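Researcher: Structure for this, please.
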Amino acid sequence: MRPVFNCSLKVKGGVSLNEAAYPGVNLTGNMLNLTLLFRTNRYTLLGDIRKAFLMIRLSKQSDRNKFCFFLKRDDRLVCYRYTTIIFGFNASPFILNCILKYHASRFPVDDCTKLLNSNFYVDNLVSTNNSEGVLRKLYHEIKERLKKGGFDLRSCNTNCPKLQELMRKDETLTTHSCPWEKVLGYRYDPESDSISLVQRTCDPNLATKRQILSAASSVFDPLSLCLPVTIQSRILVGEMWKANIDWDDPIPKEMQERWRLLASDLSVLHSLSFRRQVLDSDTVADLYIFTDASKKAYGFSVYAVQGGISSLIFAKAKVAPLKAKTLPTLELLAVFLAIKCLSNILRAYQGTKFGSLYLAVDAQIVLTWLMSKQTSHKNIFTKNRLKDVTQMEEVILANYNLAIRYKYVPSNQNPADLMTRGLTAAKFKENFSFWSAGPNWLSGGTVCWPDSTLDCLSADNQQIVRTNLFYTCNESWSQPIVAFDRFSCFNKLLRVVSRVFEFISKARGKELDYKQAAADYLFKTMQQQAFPLELKFLRAPHDKPIPNLVSQLNLFLDKSGVVRSRGRIKKNFTLQYEVLNPVLLGRIIP
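Model: Predicted structure, token format:
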């Protein structure tokens, strides 16, 4: 039993202890970032600091006097007081994290110190790694360092059998009989290495807005893994607001019936399990974002493709504004929301390398706005959102060296369409693979976008959208499809490779600028062989020294992934893009 002090208690209109106390700054790790990171790498390491708050002693008598309570003993009241910080006090998490960070600063800066600083959510340790040996070493080090600070690491678990056996010998392995652990709001099964929602039973007989909102909010899903079902509760509450229903007024019979069915759906979501590992921080991955909107809601879903496997990593949706907006505007809001959240996702995965970034929409008019950076729409709101999207694109390119490539996807192949329509639990199970892994063409190694009639786009933009370099995950650049040394002339090599791309394109029924695709392929293959250090930096520039060639020639990656040099005449608008930004060539080329 763990007593929790009621520091929010008010007496006769006075203020509570929590209201009078300064809560401190937020030093707790970002829960969403930790949850995203928990789904990376092969092995997991979980732990908990035993009675963390009670391990921090209060030195001043005046501080101890703040946490007094009375117990009745033999018909008299006896006053007791805590000598430690307590559960329920709003400043306790700040004090704990402040002490943990101070304790970590006493050791050399290494992986264990970084773990102490960044991988705790209050008193819960969450970490992953691809190396069993590294994880065992981290487990030993963090246990010993916490011990030196007076903390005891307990309730540990992992999906690594050898490390689990070590925990059992150390008597730190969790002892409960439940097959799963509760990790950052999700249930985690170490044996199957899968996660699922925590079981919640929603009362189907609720009849007020307050009750329904409270019950729907109890389904905790920060990654929105079950969004196609949970979005319906938000849509229902939104309709209550639109109908001007007060908090405690009974809702109409039709809404009560909808909630009765929805409560049943929400109560079975815990039965669905998702793979925990969706990313490997040691391998380059690609991000695919799908956006969609309806009159009821708008949002996006993000998929990581790595090693030919596509996995949902995050999704988010919002109910359409009460003030009605046109469908194209809502589609643009979905793109705006996606790019706004993208920075947080990339920041959480800053240790993972991303090669390409695609954003797909199923509204051609919105695709035209995004690619032309302008709209004929007279609505100021729409123009401002498009301007915001352009500015956020530039920030992402500057901070993460990732250019957003816009694509068109038909509605029937857009997984984001599931959440804007809303699904019952039964329909969600039928479409589970489509939602959790995206369309079939995302998986299998080669990504080929579906071809469509793009009548709303200009001829140039149609070519950009349709161009597909048949990018293959885990592509081996060391062995090009045609040996360079067999040709003494670049034009002859280009013609041969163009024929190869033409054959592939026609075999798959896709339209393609064969010559441009071949040229991009040849340039990228050559650059991968000639400039591996520079390419490695340009693809993931964070926390790395800048290679001399990158700074001297002002190198950058264009939208096709080709390394170019920004010349001094870049503002000369009379010259073509290829002249202003020449391709970087090495010696490994005819």
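Researcher: Any notable elements?
Model: The first strand starts at residue 43 and ends at 49. The chain is about 40% helix and 15% strand.
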